[in-house]
Amino acid sequence: MRLLLTALVLCSCFLSQGSLADPLLKGSPKSLLKQNLEADHSGLARIADSAELELFKENGLLIKIPKTTGIKVDSRLAEQFHVVRPWTAKFLSDLGKKFRKQFRARLQVNSATRTVEHQEKLALTNPNAAPTTGNTRSAHLTGAAVDLAKKPLTRKQKQWLRGELKNLEQKDLIEATEEHHQAVFHVMVFPRYDQDTIHVALQ
């Protein structure tokens, strides 16, 4: 009996260590570096300020977050930032439809495109805000990243979302992080997610 209990404890420890070693959805400097390398490889500019933000909208480089039955935008997010890259909009539309079909509920976008100007202001009050320069700067500056709220998702809904994001990350279509200092899933969507819109990545 004692040998059986010992074996069970060892098995439990092994499984626990295995789950901790899983790099998927784990935030790290390596993850931030990958997001920036992807942005640079695709020629994605970081949006400097409100004037440049409007220019990107006018040229179709940023489009409105899709209005679907499975996606809503946090009311606290300023209207000017309700935009994303076209392939990120496609990702949100696809994910929202699947979520709605599965749970008859909606996912909430807490944050999307940011300008360098806005990110610098955010850093004054949020010590966890990513920098605006260097290899670990915020992917939100490219317009390709969004933060999806974990609240008020149920445990089952969060588990489903983790599975969907892990699947897309394994296919190298996104880079996702489950954040804990803020209750969100951070997701950068790569242009190859939607080949039909990849041409707008180069500018």
Quick recap of the structure?
The chain has helices at residues 2-21, 29-42, 50-58, 86-103, 116-125, 155-170, and strands spanning 63-64, 71-73, 83-84, 107-111, 145-149, 174-178, 184-189. It is an alpha+beta fold and 203 residues long.
Question: Would you kindly provide a written description of the structure presented here, covering whatever features stand out?
Answer:
By secondary structure, this protein is an alpha+beta fold. It has one domain: Muramoyl-pentapeptide Carboxypeptidase, domain 2. Helix content is 43%, strand content 14%. The strands form two sheets. It has a five-stranded mixed sheet, sandwiched between helices. Strands 1-3 form a two-stranded antiparallel ribbon. A hairpin with a 5-residue loop joins strand 6 and strand 7. Mean pLDDT is 87; it is low at 3-22.
Structural key phrases:
7 strands; Muramoyl-pentapeptide Carboxypeptidase, domain 2; five-stranded mixed beta sheet; 203 residues; two-stranded antiparallel sheet; 6 helices; alpha+beta
Write the layout of secondary structure elements.
Elements: H1 2-21, H2 29-42, H3 50-58, E1 63-64, E2 71-73, E3 83-84, H4 86-103, E4 107-111, H5 116-125, E5 145-149, H6 155-170, E6 174-178, E7 184-189
Parallel strand pairs: 2-4
Antiparallel strand pairs: 1-3, 4-5, 5-7, 6-7
